[in-house]
Amino acid sequence: MPDIPDALLIDGAWRKKASGGRVGLVEPATEKVWCEVPLAGREEVDQALESAARAFREAEWATASPQHRASTLFRLAGLIREHGEDLAVLESRNVGKPIGDARAEALAGASCFEFYAGGISRFCGETIPVSARGFDYTLRVPLGVVAAIVPWNFPFAMACWKSAPALATGNAVLLKPASLTPLTALALGQLAMEAGIPRGIFQVIAGRGSEIGDHLVSHPMTRKIAFTGETATGARILKLAADDIKRVSLELGGKSPNIIFADADLEAAAAAAPLAVFGNTGQDCCARSRVLVEAPAYDAFLETFVEATRALVVGDPLDEATQVGPMVSAGQRERVEGYIELARKEGGRIVTGGDRPRTPGYYLSPTIVDGLDSSARVCQEEIFGPVACVMPFGSEREAVELANDTEYGLSGSVWTRDLERALRVARAVESGVLSVNTNSSVYLEAPFGGLKRSGFGRDLGMEAMRLYTEVKNVFISVGGAGES
Predict the structure, then answer these.
(1) Concatenated DSSP letters of 433-466
(2) What pTM did the predictor assign?
(3) What are the catalytic residues?
């Protein structure tokens, strides 16, 4: 896979031209256009969905033996590993992601396909004792055509998270990456073809959501939408899907808390806190962007947190030493800078950061703000950039109230040496995932998703396979007619 993928994958063929025209992709680290890709319009969406529906009916992917689907997905995982460095460089240049992070995500994508390939033969129905004479059992049947819509912050990882379980359960997948960052999704399409996934079962189209998103979601051939992105778009998808009762799963925004009690290992908590919020330049729905610190430890923690933040290496994403790269686009950086200015107007103090380094690229220094009340917009709204708000609390109850004082409920962390407190707070915080004495809460083997306006449904773990199937119940009468 040495070449940049610059074509759409529709019905087993590569299209270098499309009705949506072409778009130049800007490398965030240089602010220069470095390649072009075609953009799908409604015409290509129709063609891809018709191909997917036909392939689902005729390609025998859904009815293939578990061993056949598993071996195909294992081959795809092997190809991802083989081309891991190529994928990592594409991701790093397209998104601005540090190369070390991009490598880890490429390998994690391979592990994702391996996990679901191995899960195919273990994802089973049940036998159920019923009152009538006979045999009752359930089947897990695929939904049909799945539209997998993934964001620009983790393009390859999200593509794998959604495609792998959907393919494993026998569906046809139309993958739509963000128009800013389509390259690794298109590369995944190349590798899927090479692995032997049948024509039409896996397709990839780049396109602007504003132009083709509604059509893709509301199209009658789309049976399921798996979306990761902003909350407002998720709400619109729900409305569009309602008329056809389409299945929908949504992983949306976050404003996750990082709760540090005074009895915690403050040095460890402060050392981990910077990358918990500034990793991926803060462009992460799980970013621990609200740092809540028990009052007796506040000053000491803040001082160490600031020192650790200033020590982060911000630079060229292809440099092995870089920990924080540029933001994905000029528009995203300007949006975040607007929130930093708003923080000042709301009475916040910029403890560190808040400025642009004097280099080309969409860089923005990691920024820490304190002095704000939880009701401030900067503490309530998802900024999606390298900005952390630090606030004190006086009691466990207040910590939980502050943590839950947001419309989101995706992720979070609790730092304490008191196990009973950790269990209480973990249960009380309104989030889909939560970690104790670490900021790592996302694992391939475990379900991931949110509460409240952070969405519903779960990626990852065996739970994800349920999202792409329906339960069918079958009763076989023995010795006479059964009840209907």
Answers:
(1) --EESSS----TTS-B--EETTEES-BSTTHHHH
(2) 0.96
(3) 251, 285
